[in-house]
Amino acid sequence: MGLRVGVVGTGYGGAELVRLLSSHPHVGELRLFSESQADRGLGEVYAAWRDADLPLFPLEALEERELDVLFLATPHGASRELVTRWIGRPAVIVDLSGDFRFRDGSVYERFYRMPAAPRSLLEEAVYGLAEFAPPELFRARLVANPGCFPTAALLALLPLAKAGLLRPGSAIVDAKTGVSGAGRSPSLATHFAEVNENVRPYNVLVHRHGAEIEVYLGAGPVSFVPHLVPMTRGILVTAYGDLVEPMTTNDLFELYRQTYAGRPFVRLLRPGVYPETKAVQGSNFVDIGLTATADGRRAVVMAAIDNLVKGAAGQAVQNMNLRFGLPETAGLDGRPLYP
Asked: Where is coiled-coil annotated (predicted)?
């Protein structure tokens, strides 16, 4: 018998979870829950699912279901309330919001401008950057799925930081993201006429994901600037960091090759080849390209992901696979959509 899985939320992240879990070979039962869309079918919310028999149950129905895994694709604050209610149940909870990513609740409150979760839950939550999963993940009751920008930025820079080669305080992260990262609710900032033929920086040096990158990189202050670009899916990060000792591009490549050896979703590109968002669209891959400056004093590392897959739902499923001892690629082995 496969895993009994629940998904709460009908935004883009929730819909992407359904896409991945509905064909997962180890999922035996999939139940969907929503507060705003309860008692409708998923096909009424998303045309792509109009032929599917996938009813959306009210949140109260969670009390009636025995689940092995509960995914929360819910807004910040809502996840906090649901976890507080459900943490004592048998289900493992994988939360896609930012509510449990910071052990220091004051950091959360500063950047999210709402009360933090109880300290006991913040200390229990395990940060699920899958390629660097700590041993605690394999027995966790609560997994905090990383944000989309931090996923790309950390995969780009952590090999340097963990090797002690990244000079503290030198990291600069330039990121480009598609409009789906802003969610499904319409706004002026994501209106077609505002986004089309336009590239716009936003939340310069004060984005909440900058704080997340800083905490988990552990290499001092990080200068993080995201940009909204006119595409639907994808994140491209270009990260810069000063090196403690001079390195060639080949030195960098060898370090990253060793770090990510055996990691099925990391595609390290040979020197001179650089990532692009189209090549990872719809997949759980991260493509990484890198180079060193001529004097060997600075590394430039680029990472491309699909923000809805590797940056959200795909990594959440990857964390479920790791937590339950399943093949890491289960349900995630689809190729990118191209062109």
From this structure: none
